[in-house]
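Moderator note: this is an archived Q&A kept for reference. The question asked for a predicted structure of one protein chain; the sequence and the answer are reproduced below.
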Amino acid sequence: SVDSLNATPPVLVALEDDIVIAGGTNDRILAGLGSFEDGMSAWAFVARLDHEGNVRWSAPLIGAGLPSGVAIDPSGDIIVIGPNNMSPMAPGFGSDETHWARLTANGEIQEERSIYFYSTPVCLALDGNGNTYLGGWEPDPNDALVSYLVFARYDQRGDEVWKRRFRHNETSSEVLSLAIAPNGELLLTGLF
């Protein structure tokens, strides 16, 4: 593909006036960069577009692989997650860290960091207080054919509050999507 998203499916969240997307691109302007580093031909990014597709702002995600989740917290800040990578467009499979970034509604990066969460892809949900919930899978260290369901909660700064693992009948299982119900319960879909 010759499109600026380089055939990478972006993740997005729709707002009343705009759309926030995160993905990978071979367009340095969409990536929010003046130029690519030597040897790089694409970069992970987050951007805010109007409903006509015009870029309002774009920011590179330094050290991130392809984003797998984006959400808006109650204050309007944007949370983006994806694999943590030394090479921003590497798949990130097998890393035990996830890239977590918080940006203002205007695209200013407030914080980018690695958090320990072994799973790719990772699904994301935010509660009414801006806490981040991640879901995915984690391999069984003693059996390569078995994986655990894993959920974790992180506070507004990306610090881990708790993590839970659930082994499922000697088979592989994973969380594919998360949502927070109005009563605060964690809802999920996946392979069980």
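Archived answer notes: The longest strand covers residues 143-154.
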